[in-house]
Specification:
Elements: E1 3-11, H1 17-29, E2 33-35, E3 38-46, E4 62-65, H2 72-85, E5 88-90, H3 93-98, H4 101-110, E6 118-121, H5 132-139, H6 145-152, E7 156-160, E8 170-172, H7 175-183, E9 190-194, E10 201-208, E11 211-216, H8 223-226, H9 236-252, E12 257-265, E13 268-276, H10 283-286, H11 290-307, H12 318-324, H13 330-344, H14 347-357, H15 359-369, H16 372-385, H17 391-412
Parallel strand pairs: 1-3, 1-4, 4-5
Antiparallel strand pairs: 2-3, 6-9, 7-8, 7-9, 10-11, 10-12, 12-13
């Protein structure tokens, strides 16, 4: 059988630990898959930043992207690759560029999700621009914050409509704190969103392709303690709802890799933050959950590269809106959205492919996470972030959590 190589590119910013894991595990697995009369092997390399000519080819079949949400050169190179070279990339770059938190709130409200009441406020300040004074003098109406605060109630959260990483987020508890936070918001365009008071569970679900990890989350803690190790903190019905919600959001916007935050109050899960198509993936933040991330990322990249699965270049909202128009209970609608999502993500084909071909990849991953190379990758990340006198302490802490997780994954026989 002729041997062919599928090339996976890693488009990286300040990523240290997971690329080492990805590269070394893929190499250790020595995958040689018999597909369609070919022996398919895999190569992986980090994508360089350099000038590019529009008609030059792209060597990669799949690019795992962690950069284009903020780095324009790489975003435009990836757009070119998708349009001209049949490149498959995580995530749809036009969607990442265009659909911020505001759009995601609007779309999921239209699909019937219980998004908390949200008001967009005019900017407090403006950067100088041609015709700005003319426009504001004639069309910017004076408004009062007091009735808006009373409409939403306190506490509420003032946050940038396109923010991420908790940038510019303020909890406001009365009119005075609302006025102060708004005055300090500068030229950021802000949302004021009703808080979900009295919640009993905060969940963060991460989707990589059709794979979803449901994690308990505590944003009040330091970064390295926010992702909890709690197991079975929601029942099977709630887990299904969370997974369906995550996959619906991801596929609506063409995102392979995204996270969804939800709060449970009185049995209802309220999505509050779910436009995160570049979520936490470093061992210092997700630690116990890191092996799941690395293995799931590898499996999804290999599946798409091996099968030359075409990327959906455009966003088609209509199947979701057709379901939304039906006279059905919300959970039935959500199940319909999720069925569309799983079809778009080729979930059944991916599961069959994984069962048939990717056992060696999982075994190589389990061995790597138990190796000295894993410890060194963790130490490199910790040394980049922590004071020198804390490096050994946190390396040992994260390594213990990673190996606890790997032992559990190996026993269960799957990362699902």
């Amino acid at each position: 059988m002729p041997a062919v190589t599928r090339n996976i590119g890693l488009s990286l910013g300040a990523d240290i630990c997971w690329p080492l894991a990805f590269e070394q595990i893929l190499s250790d697995s020595k995958l040689a898959l018999q597909l369609g009369g070919d022996t398919v092997e895999f190569a992986c390399e980090r994508v360089a930043l350099r000038p590019f000519e529009l008609r030059q080819g792209c060597k990669y079949d799949v690019v795992v992207d962690r950069l284009t949400h903020w780095f324009a050169l790489q975003r435009e190179w990836i757009k070119k690759g998708v349009l001209m070279d049949d490149l498959y990339v995580y995530n749809n770059p036009w969607s990442v560029q265009s659909y911020e938190k505001h759009s995601s709130y609007c779309a999921m409200t239209a699909l019937g999700m219980p998004i908390p009441k949200t008001v967009m406020l005019p900017q407090k300040d403006y950067d100088d621009a041609d015709d700005l004074d003319y426009t504001l003098q004639r069309y910017a109406h004076l408004f009062e914050l007091e009735p808006i605060g009373e409409h939403l109630g306190y506490p509420s959260f003032l946050k940038p409509y396109d923010g991420g990483g908790w940038r510019g987020v303020s909890q406001v508890t009365n009119l005075e704190s609302l006025k102060q936070a708004y005055d300090e918001s500068g030229s950021d365009l802000m949302h004021l969103q009703q808080a979900v008071e009295g919640f009993d569970v905060f969940v963060r679900a991460v989707g990589i392709g059709p794979q979803v990890r449901v994690m308990k989350y505590d944003p009040s803690q330091p970064l390295h303690e926010r992702y909890r190790v709690d197991r079975a903190f929601v029942d099977d019905d709630a887990r299904q709802l969370i997974e369906d919600t995550c996959l619906t959001i991801n596929t609506f916007f063409g995102w392979d890799f995204n996270s969804c935050e939800m709060l449970r109050r009185d049995g209802v899960f309220y999505p509050i933050d779910f436009a995160n198509p570049c979520p936490d993936n470093q061992v210092n933040s997700i630690h116990y959950h890191w092996p799941w991330y690395v293995i799931s990322n590898l499996k999804w990249a290999v599946f798409n590269a091996a099968t030359r699965r075409p990327m959906r270049k455009t966003l088609d909202f209509e199947p979701y809106y057709e379901i939304a128009k039906r006279d059905l209970p919300f959970r039935d609608k959500l199940a319909g959205y999720a069925a569309v999502a799983r079809e778009r993500l080729a979930a059944a084909e991916f599961a069959e492919f994984s069962d048939r071909h990717l056992g060696p990849l999982e075994e190589a991953a389990y061995a790597w996470f138990r190796s000295d190379r894993c410890e060194e990758a963790i130490r490199l990340k910790v040394a980049h972030l922590f004071p020198e006198d804390e490096v050994e302490e946190f390396t040992a802490r994260f390594l213990a959590l990673v190996r606890e997780s790997v032992d559990e994954l190996a026993v269960s026989g799957s990362v699902e």
